[in-house]
Amino acid sequence: MNLLTGRNMVERSSKFLFIVVGSVLFMLILYQYVAPGMMNFGSPHGYMLEDDADLFPTPDPHYVKKFYFPIRDLERTVDFEIKGDDVIVFLHIQKTGGTTFGRHLVQNVRLEVPCDCRPGQKKCTCYRPNRKETWLFSRFSTGWSCGLHADWTELTNCVPGVLNKKENSMKNQRKFYYITLLRDPVSRYLSEWRHVQRGATWKTSLHMCDGRTPTPEELPPCYEGTDWSGCTLQQFMDCPYNLANNRQVRMLADLSLVGCYNMSFIPEKKRAQVLLESAKKNLRDMAFFGLTEFQRKTQYLFERTFHLKFIRPFMQYNSTRAAGVDLDNDTVQQIEELNDLDMQLYDYARDLFQQRYMYKRQLERREQLVRLRQGSFSAALHVQATTRAKRAAPKEPAPLPLSSGAQLRSCFQG
């Protein structure tokens, strides 16, 4: 009887273990082939993975890469120490959506101590959680401290000294993480033209390079009077000194390599090539850059780069002023020729951006699968250990068999 009971217990335990292991294997198959990324196994950024699937677009499996980038150029996860001496520096290029992104940085990032943005004030106070020092250098936090729309050349030479002065301290241990946004060159150019047409000039920009500003001969104005309001698109394109031409390359390149704004420093063709390669290198080496045309992907990469999460998701607005301009093919071609360097830079940047997005999404999926398998393996081990413990537990003594009446009488008589 005891042997039969033990066999039944072993059979029941084996069946239970088989069911558990089978269920785990089924869930693995279901996860891997049916709904990857649809289950929540604990996102480090607080999103449910169901929300991630809705919020961030799935990488295009048919995307064809144009450039080769090693892993060191695709991996962009930095150990940003907001309580240390790290500073995010936002390089704001005109008409790339930088105003919206800049507001995200001061109003939409989930922080232990949020930026203090008060109505009626143009700047917010973005202090570190542990002391009154800023962690963000941008238009909406420190203002145009290095000049209106300062470029890479200006910022890298200006930011350390400005922060030392603002915080009344000499620090050489700060880590600066430069970030920026790029935009399709034709759309950006048209947006700048419409902005200038309404009266914008940016005449207070310093254009500081190698310790000085450009002379009027080096950077002649495109208009007479206070502004260029009312200019036609053709007039805008006809000015050879218009800084709107290839603005993104100029804003990102090291201008000291080409003699700043001295056009006679090196031949024009060589100058263009040096500027483009410098802009590519600086963009590639930045901690982060986003693309105006891909708002959700930009949000995703920023969050994963700095381990900071936005409270509200980014919105994609396609109905811009530039989108409302009707152009013939010849005009579009002329704009592209005027912005040939920007066209090449944007083609390069878009490919790097898409490859970084694909790489990070694939890496996260593999990490989720590993966590799932580890969890399943732990569950199976737990079941197995429980079964072994039950087998090894001391068994209760079996009850005495019931004796017949004759056996009882003989026992008492004896």
Automatic annotation (TrEMBL):
As for family, the record states: Belongs to the sulfotransferase 6 family.
User: According to the lineage, what is the superkingdom?
Assistant: Eukaryota
Indicate where this protein resides in the cell: Membrane
Species, as recorded: Sinocyclocheilus grahami
Query: What EC number(s) does the entry state?
Result: 2.8.2.-
Q: What Gene Ontology terms describe what this protein does at the molecular function level?
A: heparan sulfate 6-sulfotransferase activity
Q: Does the keyword Coiled coil apply?
A: no
Region (Disordered), start-end ranges: 388-414
Give the enzyme class: transferase
The record describes the protein's role as:
6-O-sulfation enzyme which catalyzes the transfer of sulfate from 3'-phosphoadenosine 5'-phosphosulfate (PAPS) to position 6 of the N-sulfoglucosamine residue (GlcNS) of heparan sulfate.
Matches recorded under Pfam families: Sulfotransfer_2
**Residue spans of biased composition, Polar residues class:** 404-414
Which catalytic reaction applies to this protein? alpha-D-glucosaminyl-[heparan sulfate](n) + 3'-phosphoadenylyl sulfate = 6-sulfo-alpha-D-glucosaminyl-[heparan sulfate](n) + adenosine 3',5'-bisphosphate + H(+)
Q: Does the keyword Transmembrane apply?
A: yes
Please list every transmembrane segment annotated in the UniProt record, as residue ranges: 16-34
Q: What is this protein called?
A: Heparan-sulfate 6-O-sulfotransferase
Membrane topology summary: Single-pass type II membrane protein
In the UniProt record, which is one GO cellular component term? membrane
Which keywords describe this protein according to UniProt?
A: Glycoprotein, Membrane, Signal-anchor, Transferase, Transmembrane, Transmembrane helix
